[in-house]
Design brief:
Layout lengths: L20 E8 L3 H19 L3 E5 L4 H7 L7 H8 L2 E6 L9 H13 L4 E7 L17 E7 L9 E4 L7 E4 L5 H17 L4 E6 L7 H14 L5 E6 H10 L6 E4 L1 H14 L7 E5 L5 E5 L16 H14 L2 H16 L13 H14 L1
Parallel strand pairs: 1-2, 1-3, 3-12, 5-10, 8-9, 8-10
Antiparallel strand pairs: 4-5, 4-11, 6-7, 11-12
Helix pairs in contact: 1-9, 1-11, 5-6, 7-8, 9-10, 10-11
Bound molecules: nicotinamide-adenine-dinucleotide, 3-isopropylmalic acid and manganese (II) ion.
Length: about 375
Amino acid sequence: MTTKPMNPSGKLPLRWGGEAARIAVIPGDGIGKEVTPESVKVLRAVAARAKRPLEFVEFDWGADKYLKEGLSLPAGAVEMLRDEFDAILFGALGDPRVPSNQHAADILLGLRFKLDLYVNARPVELLHERLTPLRDRTENDIRFMVFRENTEGLYVGVGGFFKKGTADEIAMQEDVNSRKGVERIIRYAYDYARQNGLKRVCMSDKSNAMTFAHDLWQRVFKEVRQEYPKIESRHLYIDTLAMEMVRDPSQFDVIVTCNLFGDIVSDLGAQLAGGLGLAPSGNIHPGRTSLFEPVHGSAPNIAGKRIANPFGSVLASAMMLDFLGWKEEGQVLREGVKAALRESFVTPDLGGVKQTVEVGDWLASYVERA
Ligand code: NAD
Ligand code: IPM
Ligand code: MN
């Protein structure tokens, strides 16, 4: 068993380091509307405790607005968020009434792309050993960071149909990888490892099959790794990575991969650490307005039942506080979640009986007492 001196949610680059912060809140759809208010409640308690102002402005962008007004991401929204806010706290988007998922593509992918949030940081951290489905694994075995490229790849929406709706139909979706895009995420992963005293970076791709796009990843990786001789560099094909994450998660400190693979392995990682209800993420461009959200979606199967786990959103809020330079406050939130887990003050997905709002109230009062 190895011990690693890190908190993978911590040490994200700072923008302001200053006193006040302005947060745009986009709860979105489904359980996004249930968990996000709990985070805001807890963040208000954080601000009161720290005696530092935290200002929230809520935006009702999501499926309801899209269905009623045909509006997804309003004109000027990107510039407003970029110029008037320090960070964005985001819930989730996705609604069975919008099968095309168009509003989510416009709003969530739109913000990731247009704000150029090229780092999707998705920490995997086991906060209590009873939560992992793996046998004989403890907190020290499951603690690593997944860096997902967040602005290109198969997500760019380049493609099209030919002879749509006929028996001869063809559908194409292009995997777009730029030299600049690949290099900056790989470099970010190494810099993060170096800044946090982590020894191992694993780049994962499918270059044995994707002989153009991931050939670029291979070549860039081989160049960038030379600049970090003290860090152990490793490559795994994505299928092998998935297997190794389950077989022995303690072998990883930092994983860096493309947009689609990062989406998939972050859910796999989330489950290793107790499930989607607990997993946070940060969509980051160092020095610019960045977006923080739970890894999970809008969970229509439990929406409205008041049982959504708010921890993913709260831990994303902790990442946001780190980003804003409120390090101590971010740590208080993480400690609060750990304390709730120790006391089993948790929602049904974690085996508890508490409701979303009860867990949020508990965390807010933890912060007041901390
Ligand atoms: P999901 O993450 O919404 O749910 C997957 C499973 O995990 C469900 O069983 C759900 O009940 C459970 N779950 C998720 N979060 C939970 C929480 N906080 N507490 C307790 N249980 C939780 O994924 P899905 O069902 O594949 O997708 C539903 C919708 O969400 C789709 O429209 C999808 O496109 C969208 N989605 C959005 C985001 C996002 O906005 N970032 C992320 C993933 C999925
Ligand atoms: C996520 C989600 C999104 C993604 C969807 C909703 C487009 O799964 O944030 O992980 O694939 O990035
Ligand atoms: Mn996902």
